[in-house]
């Protein structure tokens, strides 16, 4: 059941009315949310609903043991057991065959013919996202960041909350659980705000991302026949596609949550306008970046602090290797993470990694923005080649094609002008409203109501005009 499908609309409308009409108390509302979340998850992966339920129960039990343990050794033992259990299931479902394939490649070096066979493993949808929620919950209890153990019901809602379980954001327990303690009341301003953010998410997904996907899929299938300028254009389009797809999902998830009276954390802050590498990662997939910063990078940087800047470099590179590995059991994802970490080295050596970036809210960019934004955009466009490639062989050949003399030729791949137009329309709207939570949050609020609603109707018209068969979200496969 896709968030951009008619089946989800019917599901959510039914859930919404039950939630507010029958939810006389916060507990009843939470029960409705949990049942709705399990129904939603079952539509994706009913076979693994039992895994989600069992893992939720086990980690809740372990969390209680960490909290109640009086001795430090006991707390550490329960924490390690809980984290180990979550990681084992994640490693099995997502990475087991990757390890087997690479072990077999190692045996090949020594001429060993009897090799281990691969398993037919079905990947549980959303496991990377809810596993990180579980781990952060256990770590927050251990570090006394979660002062009060929630009820099993509230914890289960936190883990399985349906707008976020497929592709995030990866919320933390403390702020999310605050939503569940009080009864949520219908709010007209919040309802309007939520609908507008859903509309903007639908526009980015259905109009921009899905239509670009029709171009990039054909381009990547025939990349070996294309010249360098066409290959670079394909990488640029994919960067915009991935952003529109993933941030479109996030906008929909946040908007749906607002309709339910629940606040979840943002996941994007206009990363297409980042001015350097560090600025980009503060704006892109914020919930994952902040999660890894707190639970991986910070402990590593403390551990390596005696090595000064070189210790910081080691911490950054290890952190981004985890980022790459989190995305998938393929070498091109791991190399993507490694290169992402290496890109921080000039900032670290120059002492500019944590330097605050000056930004303006004017429509006309400053000289610094005109210099920094295009350079950063091109850097991450080139990095995207490692992300969308099927393997390292494709990535290598794709780079060779871009950096060949054919780059100076006109692109030999057709790209529809209307797709370029709607992409630029999205980018310009976001640029002009980059100081807002999302691009159309306050657009035309001071103008005539006819003009404002006319703009919304134009967006709705474009959604239906460009709508094609619903496509899944790219990050759902992670």
UniProtKB/TrEMBL annotation:
Major location category of this protein: membrane
Protein's UniProt keywords contain Membrane: yes
Record's bilayer topology term: Multi-pass membrane protein
Residue ranges crossing the lipid bilayer per the database entry: 6-23, 44-62, 77-96, 117-135, 155-174, 310-327, 333-351, 372-389, 409-429, 450-469
Subcellular location: Cell membrane
Family membership: Belongs to the membrane-bound acyltransferase family.
Keyword Transmembrane helix listed: yes
Signal peptide start-end: none
InterPro entries found in the cross-reference section: Ac/AlaTfrase_AlgI/DltB, AlgI, MB_O-acyltransferase, MBOAT_fam
Pfam families (UniProt xref): MBOAT (PF03062)
Organism whose genome encodes this protein: Chryseobacterium contaminans
Keywords, comma-separated and alphabetical: Acyltransferase, Cell membrane, Membrane, Transferase, Transmembrane, Transmembrane helix
GO cellular component: a single term: plasma membrane
Name the UniProt record assigns to this protein: D-alanyl-lipoteichoic acid acyltransferase DltB, MBOAT superfamily
GO MF terms held by the record: acyltransferase activity
GO-annotated biological processes: alginic acid biosynthetic process
Domain of life: Bacteria
């Amino acid at each position: 059941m896709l968030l951009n499908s008619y089946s989800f609309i019917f599901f959510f409308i039914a859930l919404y009315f039950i939630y507010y009409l029958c939810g006389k108390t916060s507990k009843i509302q939470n029960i409705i949310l949990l049942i709705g979340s399990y129904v939603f998850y079952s539509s994706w992966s009913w076979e693994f609903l039992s895994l989600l339920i069992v893992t939720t129960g086990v980690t809740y039990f372990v969390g209680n043991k960490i909290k109640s343990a009086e001795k430090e050794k006991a707390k550490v033992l329960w924490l390690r057991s809980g984290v180990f259990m979550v990681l084992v299931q994640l490693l099995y479902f997502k990475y087991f065959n990757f390890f087997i394939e690479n072990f077999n490649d190692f045996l090949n070096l020594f001429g060993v013919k009897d090799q281990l066979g691969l398993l037919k493993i079905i990947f549980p949808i959303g496991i990377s996202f809810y596993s990180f929620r579980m781990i952060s919950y256990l770590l927050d209890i251990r570090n006394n960041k979660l002062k009060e153990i929630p009820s099993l019901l509230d914890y289960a809602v936190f883990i399985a909350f349906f707008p976020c379980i497929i592709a995030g954001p990866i919320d933390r327990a403390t702020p999310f659980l605050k939503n569940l303690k009080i009864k949520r009341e219908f709010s007209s301003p919040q309802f309007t705000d939520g609908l507008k953010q859903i509309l903007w998410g639908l526009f980015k997904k259905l109009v921009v991302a899905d239509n670009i996907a029709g171009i990039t899929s054909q381009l990547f299938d025939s990349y070996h026949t294309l010249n360098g300028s066409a290959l670079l254009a394909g990488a640029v389009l994919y960067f915009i596609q991935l952003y529109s797809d993933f941030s479109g999902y996030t906008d929909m998830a946040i908007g749906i949550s607002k309709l339910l009276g629940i606040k979840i954390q943002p996941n994007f802050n206009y990363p297409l306008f980042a001015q350097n590498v560090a600025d980009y990662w503060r704006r892109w997939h914020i919930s994952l970046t902040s999660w890894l910063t707190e639970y991986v990078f910070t402990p590593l940087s403390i551990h390596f602090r005696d090595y000064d800047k070189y210790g910081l470099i080691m911490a950054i590179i290890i952190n981004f290797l985890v980022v790459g590995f989190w995305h998938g059991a393929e070498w091109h994802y791991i190399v993507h993470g490694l290169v992402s970490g290496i890109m921080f080295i000039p900032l670290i050596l120059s002492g500019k990694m944590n330097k605050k970036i000056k930004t303006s809210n004017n429509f006309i960019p400053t000289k610094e923005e005109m210099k920094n934004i295009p350079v950063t955009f091109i850097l991450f466009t080139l990095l995207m080649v490692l992300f969308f490639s099927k393997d390292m062989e494709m990535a290598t050949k794709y780079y060779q094609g871009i950096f060949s003399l054919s780059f100076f030729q006109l692109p030999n791949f057709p790209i529809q002008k209307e797709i370029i137009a709607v992409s630029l329309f999205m980018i310009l709207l976001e640029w002009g409203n980059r100081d807002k939570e999302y691009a159309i949050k306050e657009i035309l609020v001071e103008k005539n109501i006819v003009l404002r609603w006319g703009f919304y109707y134009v967006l709705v018209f474009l959604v239906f005009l460009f709508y094609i068969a619903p496509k899944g979200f790219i990050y759902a496969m992670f």
